[in-house]
């Protein structure tokens, strides 16, 4: 069982001083009750793994048992295509009542229209005291409206194969920087004759690495609040040059080979065979990486530049739960949301399938029931300790991300040099930012 002191420390990181006292209070609710209440059908949309689907369905079954007047229709899928589907539903007024949303999306959604109900209007239904006020303000509030509530707290880390590290005499307390990543990765490649690869990476990972590098060097946001770039061409060339070196030295797998598994390392044959050393990901993905393999998975802090002006480590909600503005049953959706996020029975059923809970009530319930995965807890705590300034909204604009990811793809397939990629990323992002600004 996880020790009380460890849970308390985690509470400090997750909730800060505003909600520390909440770590000792489960905040359990008992549902809405049955009786002759009006029959209501709610739709709930989410993405996730099989484990998340199974445990969420079990929680919904329990909720419907406690609330016979409510029927919850589950709509769930994998991550691919989810955002576009949700955009279409929100724009057409056909979105489900309760929706799992990736936190970076809310900036784009908020610029289109009021897509989500302001959860501040449901303070008599949803217990907001279990969430850290600053955490909500940093990640869930836009236009003075509470767009959603965090299901959990998470941060970017490196997950690694402990047996792989032992095989290549890589200390398990290694702090990777941009230079020793190249040195160690090249050694692994050479000693294995190219069979083993230190770092799993594709276009998305390359973009994340590019953003981290320039932010660590400048201390600025990747995209400034005034819609200008937070980096110049020489710095872009420098950062992209490192990425090219990683490809050429075999530190990462060629894109042509990694493409089918870009966001699904847990399904990559090289991972199952123990031929990958590590990957950048979120703590909640560790169980899927551990499933079906004969080695132990650990967590390390993000790649960090010596003398970095900011860590650039992304920490944010695992996901948000939001209520569609178009919902005809917003109050019932708010009751379901409160139960899922704050009720002790719901917490035990759901476990940590959405990360370490951001609600102090749910966190306390899981700790008491010995339902917290210590590896996920330790990884989340590690990410929170190294947290950088939250990314601003414009940095996560979907059009900007698409432009930058496509350029990383060209670099990865050797269809562009670092100089050419730097010119293109500055030209294309600047043009799109001017367009976005003109519509504000």
Radius of gyration, in Å, reads 22 Å
The CATH top-level class label of the largest domain: Alpha Beta
Tally of individual domains: 2
**What's the count of strands?**
14
Shape: globular
- Unreliable stretches: 1-35
Portion in beta strands: 5-15%
Q: Estimate the helix proportion, in percent.
A: 40-55%
Largest sheet: 5 strands, mixed
Average pLDDT confidence is 90
Number of DSSP helical runs: 18
Organism: Paenibacillus sepulcri
Protein name: ABC transporter substrate-binding protein
Pfam families: SBP_bac_1
Keywords: Signal
Q: What does this protein look like?
A:
The chain starts with a helix and ends with a helix. α8 crosses α9, α8 packs across α17 and α9 packs across α18. The protein has 440 residues and is of the alpha+beta class. It has 2 domains: 220 residues, D-Maltodextrin-Binding Protein, domain 2; 198 residues, D-Maltodextrin-Binding Protein, domain 2 (3-Layer(aba) Sandwich), CATH 3.40.190.10. It is built from 18 helices and 14 strands. The strands form 4 sheets. It has a 5-stranded mixed β-sheet with strand order 2-1-3-13-6. It has a 4-stranded mixed β-sheet with strand order 9-10-8-11. Helices cover 46% and strands 13% of the residues. Pfam families: SBP_bac_1. Keywords: Signal. It comes from Paenibacillus sepulcri.
Structure summarized in a few sentences:
With 440 residues, the chain is an alpha+beta fold. Helices cover 46% and strands 13% of the residues.
Write the layout of secondary structure elements.
Layout: H1 4-19, E1 40-47, H2 50-66, E2 70-77, H3 82-92, E3 98-101, H4 105-112, H5 133-139, E4 141-142, E5 145-146, E6 149-150, E7 152-155, E8 157-161, H6 162-167, H7 178-191, E9 197-200, H8 203-218, H9 233-248, H10 255-258, H11 269-272, E10 276-281, H12 286-290, E11 297-300, E12 315-317, E13 320-323, H13 330-342, H14 344-350, E14 356-357, H15 360-368, H16 374-385, H17 398-412, H18 418-438
Parallel strand pairs: 1-2, 1-3, 9-10
Antiparallel strand pairs: 3-13, 4-5, 6-13, 7-12, 7-14, 8-10, 8-11
Helix pairs in contact: 1-15, 2-14, 8-9, 8-17, 9-18, 13-14, 14-15, 17-18
């Amino acid at each position: 069982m996880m020790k009380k002191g460890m849970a308390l420390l985690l509470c400090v990181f997750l909730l800060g001083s505003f909600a520390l006292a909440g770590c000792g209070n489960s905040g359990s609710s008992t549902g809405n009750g049955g009786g002759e209440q009006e029959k209501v059908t709610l739709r709930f949309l989410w993405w996730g793994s099989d484990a998340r689907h199974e445990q969420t369905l079990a929680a919904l079954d329990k909720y419907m048992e406690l609330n016979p007047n409510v029927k919850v229709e589950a709509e769930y899928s994998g991550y691919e295509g989810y955002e576009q589907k949700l955009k279409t539903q929100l724009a057409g007024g056909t979105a489900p009542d309760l929706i799992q949303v990736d936190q970076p999306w809310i900036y784009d959604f908020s610029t289109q229209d009021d897509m989500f109900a302001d959860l501040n209007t449901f303070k008599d239904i949803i217990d907001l005291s279990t969430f850290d006020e600053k955490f909500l303000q940093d990640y869930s509030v836009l236009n003075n409206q509470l767009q959603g509530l965090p299901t959990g707290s998470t941060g970017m880390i490196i997950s690694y194969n402990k047996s792989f590290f032992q095989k290549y005499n890589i200390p398990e307390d290694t702090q990777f920087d941009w230079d020793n990543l190249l040195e160690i990765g090249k050694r692994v490649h050479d000693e294995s004759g190219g069979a083993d690869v230190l770092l799993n990476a594709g276009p998305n990972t390359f973009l994340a690495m590019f953003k981290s590098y320039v932010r660590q060097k400048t201390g600025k946001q990747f995209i400034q609040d005034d819609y200008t770039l937070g980096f110049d061409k020489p710095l872009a060339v420098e950062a992209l040059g490192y990425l090219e070196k990683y490809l050429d030295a075999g530190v990462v797998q060629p894109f042509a080979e990694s493409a089918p598994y870009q966001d699904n390392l847990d399904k990559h044959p090289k991972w199952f065979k123990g031929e990958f050393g590590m990957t950048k990901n979120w703590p909640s993905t560790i169980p899927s990486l551990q499933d079906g393999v004969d080695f132990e998975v650990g967590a390390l802090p993000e790649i960090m530049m010596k003398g970095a002006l900011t860590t650039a480590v992304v920490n944010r909600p695992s996901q948000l739960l939001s209520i569609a503005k178009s919902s005809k049953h917003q109050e019932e959706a708010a009751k379901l949301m409160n139960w899922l996020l704050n009720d002790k029975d719901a917490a035990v059923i759901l476990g940590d399938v959405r990360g370490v809970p951001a609600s102090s009530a749910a966190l306390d319930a899981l700790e008491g029931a010995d339902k917290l995965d210590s590896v996920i807890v330790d990884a989340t705590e590690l990410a929170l300790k190294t947290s950088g300034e939250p990314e601003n909204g414009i940095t996560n604009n979907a059009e900007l991300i698409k432009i930058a990811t496509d350029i990383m793809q060209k670099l990865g397939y050797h269809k562009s040099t670092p100089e050419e990629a730097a010119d293109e990323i500055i030209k294309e992002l600047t043009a799109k930012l001017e367009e976005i600004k003109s519509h504000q």
